[in-house]
Amino acid sequence: MEIINEASEKFKDKQEEICGILFPLLRKINVLEKEVYERCEELRAKKEELGIPKNQLAPGEKELKAEYKERLGEIVRPCCTEKLLSKGIGTSFGNPQKYGYIDGECRASFIMKTAARAVVETHYSRGVDSKHKFVLRFVEDKWLLDEVCYGFESDGDKWSADNLK
């Protein structure tokens, strides 16, 4: 991944610290999402074997979704503001993982203009040129993820609010 440092001169040295908080968090989310997706696919395959209609949940699927939400919460709660957490977590999982691009072909921009706020924008393509924006705030002596947004490169500077899966 290429990271372009667009921070003000006095904050350029913060890139490693901020990205060192954000990217490991996203990787942990990816690992959990992949595991749960694969387990869910196994449950769905068993559902077909049992002849359960497609529009019904597989036995154990509801519990797996609850487990995902709980485990995701354990990962993100210490790293996020209440504002972001209030948008909901653990609402979905899939393949490819939502942030799976961070270890592949993508580029990121590190933007910081004040001591209390940093932005990391990621740009990637999965058939459509897309982007995420992560806003971190310095709260009570630590950096916390405060906002997540998504967008499409074709929409210019337009962003839509998002949650952490």
Characterise the protein shown here.
The chain is of the alpha+beta class. It has helices at 15-50, 61-76, 82-85, and strands at 2-5, 106-114, 117-125, 129-139, 142-152, 160-161. The chain has a 6-stranded mixed sheet with strand order 1-2-3-4-5-6. A hairpin with a 2-residue loop joins strand 2 (106-114) and strand 3 (117-125). Helix 1 (15-50) runs antiparallel to helix 2. The radius of gyration is 18 Å and the shape is elongated.
Task: Summarize this structure briefly.
The chain contains 3 helices and 6 strands; from the N terminus they run βαααβββββ.
Question: What Rg do the Cα atoms give?
Answer: 18 Å
Q: How many β strands by DSSP?
A: 6
Element order: H for helix, E for strand: EHHHEEEEE
Can you tell me the residue ranges where pLDDT is under 50 for at least 5 consecutive residues?
A: none
Biggest sheet features? 6 strands, mixed
The average pLDDT value, as a whole number, equals 95
The quaternary structure here is: single chain
Could you give the distance between the termini? Answer: 22 Å
Strand arrangement across the biggest beta sheet: 1-2-3-4-5-6
Class based on secondary structure composition and strand pairing: alpha+beta
Report the portion of residues in β strands. Answer: 25-35%
Number of helices: 3
The helix content, as a percent range, equals 25-40%
Global outline: elongated
